[in-house]
Amino acid sequence: MRESESSDRETTDDSERPGEGRPQSPDTTTTAPDPDAASPPKPRRKFALARKPSRRLLAFTGAVIVGLAALGGGVFGLVWAFTRVPDSAQLAAAGSAESARQWRWLPAGKIFPAVINYKTSQGTRTHATLVGIAPQAPCAKALDTATAKTADKAGCLTVLRATYADASDTVVTTVGVAVMKSRSAADKADAAFTSAPDSGVLPAAFPATVAAEVNARGRLLTDEQEVGRYLIFSASGYADGRKAPKDPTADLAVASQTGDLSTTVNDQTLDRLSPPSNPCADREVRC
Predict the structure, then answer these.
(1) Cα separation of 66 and 57, whole Å?
(2) How is the chain split into domains, by residue range?
């Protein structure tokens, strides 16, 4: 009995000794880094030597420099163009060009104002009232046959007409602006016109007005002037449409009245279409 007990104890003691008997599980405990341990060396940065600039880079740089120089020259040119003072020839050219365009962009009320104030040959101040503005018409329909033929041959484009009545509504004047294709065309036509009383612009009548009965037979006085590319016509006569006498000066009072109205309307229309004295003062005019 004692021998078996002692062998059992020996067996038990041997199984409980570390490293002997049952196998040991591996150690999974994490070991903390040692702060005194040397850190691994950092990679060294490599620097490449700069290469010589390529031809493309030099060409691009040169192009940029040339472009900047050209831009500076352009700015200088613009400043010079907008600050220079035009000479007399440039002023005249700009004025002629501006006058030539006026019939297109000027409102009808600017060419033919509602009221025209003037002084009679006796020194009395009076006025003429606009009766109406006729639609733009071909030269053959707004001028008498002989005048239209001469104007068309020279280069007539169109005719603008308006009729005015004097303060007494006794006489009326139709003013016509014949637009020629050029100044030389206007010169050519002007040199060929006659001054006969029955030639020139045809009176423009307006129904239900003081000028409802005006017609070509009642023309007492006609006139024609030239300015730039325009021919300014006027025809004056009785407002009631009566036929003009063979001697337009037979009635001196009416003749004087007609002459004052005709001259005033014609001259003021011519002035409004004349080249401006300083066209460069207008913001829309380029000198």
Answers:
(1) 14
(2) 92-279
